[in-house]
Write a structure and sequence with these properties.
With 284 residues, this protein is an all-alpha fold. It has twelve helices and no strands. It is an enzyme of class 3 (hydrolase).
Length: 284
Amino acid sequence: MIEILKAILFGIVEGITEWLPISSTGHMILLDEIVKLNVSEEFYSMFQVVIQLGAILAVVLIFWNSIWPFGKKNNKAPLSESGIGAWIKKDIFVLWFHILVSCVPAAIVGVLWDDLFEELFYNYTTVAIMLIIFGVAFILVENMKSGHKAKINAVADITYTTAFLIGMFQLIAAIFPGTSRSGATIVGALLIGVARTTAAEYTFYLAIPVMLGASLLKILKFGLSFTAMEAAILIVGMVVAFAVSMFVIKFLMDYIKKHDFKVFGWYRIALGLIVLACGIIGVI
């Protein structure tokens, strides 16, 4: 029962931090310093990634009509006026092509060097430094963009070039925990002229193949030989992450319609400094 309660806590943290630009991986690493799951190191390495599948499902359900490329209803850009082509949503297929372009840099690095980067950088020091760096970046970028009209105000306006540039920013998060995948892509998108709400929406879509691919990679490395307790911990964590994500995604989309990202920048800086202080005095 204690381990299940811990899994619930991990699911809550994942559901909140995956979508807010404050680093889910960083928070999971920090939480593990405080609340240790009674599992093997190999299982935990897999768990902290695969728990994201619950968060992915929340995105799929909330944005289903915007990401499913088949169906006659609300088909703004059918491949043809009749026949099978009338069921194909050309604009959504283009969106997925853009998303795949954004995924290429992180996918290549993840497949080739995932274990190396995990060994080198998955520690509280890296998390703290990257929390602070991207916290400062959020504040600076928001100040720089204040009063300037965005060039790209809809996901449909994102080009292949823009998609690739956003993918390069996502690559930073793939290497350094504490960066935040959503934080890196949003900062990058804002820098190249994407509107705040559009940047957040595209980041949600981008999470689907990225997190699904990372989860499948971890499962393949770990194998399917779960104990009953390990399976229960993983399922509970994913279910809780899904439920919390449903609320957090809707909250964030409503929040950024009226506010900027500076509050998340200040939070990141404060948390990073606290983590560094705790490390210095030996608390973590």
